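Let's practice the habit of predicting before peeking. Look at the sequence and jot down your guess about where helices and strands might fall. Then scroll down.
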Amino acid sequence: MSFLHPALLAVAVLVTVGAVATYVTVQKRRTAAMTAAGFAPATSRRASIRRHLPYALLLAALPILIAGLARPEAKLSVPRVSGTVLLAFDVSNSMKATDVAPSRLAAAQQAATGFVDDQPDSVDVGVIVFGEQALLTQAPTDDHGLALAAINRATASGGTSLGQAILVGLGTITGKPVTLPADGAAPDTSALGYWPSATIVVFSDGQDTGGPDAEAAAELAAAAGVRIQTVGVGTEKGGTVEVDGYQLGTQLDETLLTGVAQVTGGAYHRAGDAGVLADTTKSIDLRLTTKKEPVELTAPFAGAALLLLAIGAFLGTRWHGRIV
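Done guessing? Here is the structure:
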């Protein structure tokens, strides 16, 4: 705890010592006067409490009140939602399917727009689009308007590499390229650092068509403390899309999306239609962090002093017929 005006603490000590000394002197003179007049002062414990307690409360209020004027301040851990969120959009051909109206990609864009609008300025939002490759289209920023513009620019084409999206997301968070070993060996995670306030939110139908292994990439994310939340866009019944003149069937693959999320301690969020999808994003759990912030304690000090004054005045009136 610190004080903006610490000199007032010395004043509080001097005033308190002076007030106590004055009270003791007055009580000794009063006792001496009563003895000289032939009155024996009350000596029982109850009588002593009734006699001194109201004054003691008033005297105790003095240093607290003056200390409050010194404007005490403490740094407290204040919980808040903060950190970095990367929204990763599947923009493969399968996201053109209309089993979620108006299309899977359009529904994901609508839901993500609502999600961004709900975030406080303490959350930096970035945007990644991924097909066969992944591309960071908006670096994490507290200017959520830029993130919304990047979301609205996304268009669907090509295949899908969920693993590549996760690696690009990790590279954005850590500030360095992140890859998986080509020979299948265990990756070196020592250089990743630890980023517990970062989250990757993936909007996809789970139709992974190639690229780095998605669950292996998720294990890298878990090692770096990054949580992945996945949002399934599509239906089990599925739909069809036209690619190069061919009609191809596509269905929601919840198994992959669930596995990727669970590896990192995240969750899979299922959505059927656009309305449900928008509601689903409200349940996405971001990181609740704490930050040391200075909090002025003048009001609690003043409140405590006033409470002591009020109790002392009440007891003085009740026991002695006057405010002491």
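How did you do? Residues 2-75+295-320 form one domain.
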